[in-house]
């Protein structure tokens, strides 16, 4: 899949297929969106779509300014449209949003356990993870909480008992962050199952400082 060019709907369809294959999604547990380059619109998955069965017809084009549907489509957008709108309005640097219901992330949230950023990949791609209080799905309250949590540059937001909102300046990077968030959650859970979560260290601080200083990359 070439993430660098082409219709963003094709890129999002690829993400949908891959996150289901990776076990991050069951059924239609999530929704995806991407800005239209050079425009004030974005494509978002239609209501009830299965993420591993997406094609271009499964997306609805929406105007960021007022939330109006501008595509010639009779399908309504996802019920989480307010989440996407609020985030794009607060974060003009964000080009893609991956909202999923990943199992390990949500299990740790239900247990009140913080996800540890154990590896250099976690530290580099995720930086930090913020959890918002429970709000009813699809509501303006949930959307406002998520957008406020991301307003300072946070790119991984856990919506308590509901899912995650992972954002980036490209579809590819949002996809990577979603994968690493669930990997970090699974490693944390494994440490918890071994009775070692309390002693599980985060990524070495010297690496984190180098990432924050912009002198460290990863492959």
Automatic annotation (TrEMBL):
Domain Class II aldolase/adducin N-terminal: 10-189
InterPro entries given in the database record: Aldolase_class_II_sugar_metab, Aldolase_II/adducin_N, Aldolase_II/adducin_N_sf
Keywords linked to the UniProt accession: Lyase, Metal-binding
A GO term, aspect molecular function: metal ion binding
Native source species: Planosporangium mesophilum
Gene Ontology biological-process annotations: pentose catabolic process
Name recorded for this polypeptide: Fuculose phosphate aldolase
GO CC terms in record: cytosol
Pfam families for the chain: Aldolase_II
